Amino acid sequence: MDDSRKLQPKIVRIWRGRVRRDRADEYEAYSNDVGIAPLREKALAVQTFREDRANETEFMTVSYWSSVEAMSAFTGRSPTEIHHLPRDPEFLIELPKSVQILELRTRHVNDGVLL
Predict the structure, then answer these.
(1) How many other C-beta atoms are found inside a 10 Å radius of the C-beta of residue 50?
(2) Cα(108)–Cα(80) distance, integer angstroms
């Protein structure tokens, strides 16, 4: 399929959460199994990021969508509403109150680079 026929992401949803540094590896594995795996089945793409600090670790999940409607179909409600994983209260320093939803305006990827 040529690039003009591929689905292009138009919407980006960004979630952030912080955990104690000593539980970061455990949370990352849990989040990947329970949160990221189902997200990967519906979003056009998903990226996860991790920043280890002295006493805490911040995780960020970025998912890419063709439309807000596609995102709503996955969540079953408004995509701006937070969906906490069952064990999030055990791990997260504080439960996030919001997610960020942005319109993707431009995309620049060099040949041979996978994102």
Answers:
(1) 12
(2) 26
Residues 99, 15: contact at Cβ < 8 Å? Answer: yes
- Amino acid identity at 114: L
Domains belonging to the chain, first-starting first, are 7-103 (3.30.70.100)
Give the tens place of pLDDT for each residue, 32-81. 999 999 999 999 999 999 999 999 999 999 999 999 998 888 777 788 88
- Rounded Cα distance between 63 and 51, Å, is 18
Structure tokens at 19: 């955990």
Tokens of 63: 């998912």
CA distances from 80 to 6, 46, 55 (A): 26, 17, 29
pTM confidence score? 0.88
Q: Which amino acid is at 42?
A: K
